[in-house]
Structure formats: C-alpha cells, structure tokens
Specification:
There is one protein chain. This protein is mainly beta. Helix content is about 10%, strand content about 45%. It is built from two helices and 13 strands, in the order βββββββαβββββαβ. The strands form two sheets. A six-stranded antiparallel beta barrel has the order 2-3-4-7-6-5. Strands 8-9-10-13-12-11 form a six-stranded antiparallel beta barrel. The protein is elongated and about 60 Å long. It starts with 9 loop residues before the first strand and ends with a strand.
Length: about 210
C-alpha cells in the first residue's frame, strides 16, 4: 500500500553532503519526504548513482541516508558560489531517527502556517550585558524571528528576555522567550536565509 506521506514534502534547509566513491559534494537539503529528498550541491551526479547523504540539522543532530539519484538538473545559484545542481533522490536505507525528523518538519511547517507579519521593530535582549541594536524580521502570535548579523552568546533552547519597541507608536512589550533555532552568518550565506534567531514566547510581561 502506498504511504501517503511519500507525497508530502517539507521544505528544509539542512546542511548535507552527497558522496560516493568518486565525489564528495557539499550542499543543503531543499525538501524532504518519507521516501526521498531534493538536495542542492555543487557537483554533478548521474541518475542511477547510489550515494550516501549525511545531513546535519541546525541544532547539530546528524542523520545518514543511502539513496539513489532519480534526476539531476542545474538550478538557480542562491549562494553566489559555484554552479549548483539540484538532485532528486529516493531513500534506500535511512537512519532510525528519520521518522522524528519528518515529525519535526511537519510541526515546523504547521507553525509557519500561522499568521506571520513581516515588520521591522527594534529588539533588545535585556539579559545580555551588551545587546546590539536588533530588528524583527517577522512576528506571530506565538513567536518572533530577529535578524542579527553578528554572533550572539545564545543557542537553541536558551531562555532570553526580549524587549520589542514600536518607536513610531511609542509602545513596547517585554517577554520571556525560548530560542528555537539560530541561523549563523555562514549558514545564511550558504542557504540564502536571513541570519538571526527564532524564539517562541514563553511568558509575556505585564
């Protein structure tokens, strides 16, 4: 019986390597499903090639897949480096944690489907000794993404105190938040994402 999840793809940007006996190409996952994935790399592979794909999530969890290349085509270069190729692969053997990876991807997608508003507001991390001037990229009822070009001493699962100010309206709000992910400058340049961090509201101050 066909598994319906094979037809449901989740957009991901996980760091990955596609390798066989002849090549070792770095890149990142574009999307992933129960039975396969699309990968963008900086080298060519042929349909029918058997490859190993180690990938690493933003929080450092590693997965490993044995896959067969189904199709290969040139694609738009969003990193500014090399001549990228996009591969479609079908999994032959996968890590036992694969199901959890899909569950996490599905949860993230559901969260992104919330009403998000792209707006630039001034943000201060009040429990850092010297918080730089930061700005929101987008906000929702339950979370926030803050743009940041410099490295901050925060990591996933840290609890931070944020003050968000609307200078035009003369209003501000303070709340406790938990960091859900961090996109550093190197990863942002490689994937075309904005550098910064996402956080989930834990407790709003009066």
């Amino acid at each position: 019986m066909s598994n319906r999840r094979e037809h449901k793809r989740f957009n991901r940007r996980y760091e990955a390597t596609v390798q066989n006996d002849d090549k070792n190409a770095s890149g990142f996952i574009v999307n992933i499903s129960h039975g396969g994935m699309e990968v963008q790399v900086e080298d060519e592979f042929e349909p029918g090639d058997t490859v190993e794909i180690p990938l690493r999530t933003r929080n450092g969890v590693e997965f490993r897949y044995k896959s067969i290349v189904i199709w290969s085509e040139p694609c738009e270069d969003i990193t500014g480096v090399g001549k990228p190729v996009r591969l479609g692969v079908r999994h032959v053997q996968w890590d036992e944690k694969h199901e959890q990876l899909l569950n996490d991807a599905q949860y993230d997608e559901q969260r992104r489907e919330e009403n998000r508003m792209r707006i630039e507001l001034l943000v201060t991390v009040t429990n850092l000794p010297a918080s730089p001037m930061l700005f929101t990229d987008n906000i929702s009822a339950h979370g926030i993404f803050v743009r940041c070009d410099e490295e901050l001493p925060i990591s996933q699962d840290d609890e931070i105190h944020l003050r968000v100010a609307d200078t035009n309206m003369g209003r501000e709000i303070q709340f406790l938040a938990k960091v859900t992910h961090v996109i550093d400058k190197d990863w942002a340049e490689r994937t075309g994402l904005n550098s910064g961090f996402g956080a989930r509201v834990v407790e709003e101050s009066d």
